[in-house]
Design brief:
11 helices; alpha/beta; Arc Repressor Mutant, subunit A; WH-like_DNA-bd_sf; Rossmann fold; five-stranded parallel sheet; globular
């Protein structure tokens, strides 16, 4: 019996995907999460998961940070990204950052099941139409992933607010923490990213953005 986690903020899509998969995989047990925080909670409590079906635009995941963070914390868990975007640059990064498959949301239930079956057997999977067009990661992108993987979710939230141009007091208000805590987070972010100022940190954050940006929080 397989155990899958569907991490997506749209309940109707989760329900439809769950129903489709349960017709394809006998005895399948499906867990659900609607944001990055609840996804981490399910991952920590369900140690026998066979697969994570991850939406890149899920609230709290911070663009590509969610994938990088989960890959770092759960290196043996197969991750398949399901997304409405088919941007080749993003797909290349998704695969380079550790996903074993990329499935467009427009795929049929049979195609989704076929892709998942490949991944469960240890193979990577991409749609035939884009398989030969996806390129490997640049060395710089790999370095960025290693740096960002060291950030906690709270630190990455601070980094995203830096990217948006917020002042320390504004970040403190948004996160309901003190300015002193914000400063401590920024110091840790600079150290982990190997940078010395906000501009350098923001440039790194820019490399993880998704286009178009949807459902950001």
């Amino acid at each position: 019996m397989n155990q899958f986690l569907i991490a997506d903020d749209h309940p109707l899509f989760r329900e439809a995907l769950k129903g489709a998969l349960q017709t394809q995989f006998e005895g399948l047990e499906v867990f659900e999460s609607e944001n990055f925080e609840t996804t981490l909670s399910v991952l920590s409590s369900q140690e026998e998961l066979d697969l994570l079906l991850l939406d890149l635009h899920m609230p709290g995941s911070g663009d590509l940070y969610g994938l990088i963070r989960i890959r770092e914390d759960y290196p043996c868990l197969p991750i398949v990204v399901i997304s409405g975007s088919e941007d080749l640059t993003i797909i290349s990064k998704v695969m380079g950052y550790g996903a074993m498959g990329f499935i467009p949301k427009a795929s049929s239930s049979q195609d989704i099941a076929r892709a998942i079956a490949h991944v469960l057997e240890g193979d990577s999977w991409l749609p035939v139409s884009i398989k030969d067009k996806v390129s490997g990661l640049e060395i710089e992108d790999k370095e960025v992933a290693q740096q960002v993987a060291s950030l906690t979710p709270q630190q990455y939230k601070v980094l995203r607010y830096l990217h948006e141009g917020l002042l320390n007091k504004q970040i403190a208000f948004e996160l309901h923490i003190s300015e002193a805590t914000v400063k401590a987070h920024i110091t840790a972010i600079f150290r982990k990213l190997g940078v010395y100022n906000r501009t350098q940190a923001v440039l790194i954050a820019s490399k993880l953005q998704l286009e178009p940006v949807e459902a950001m929080s």
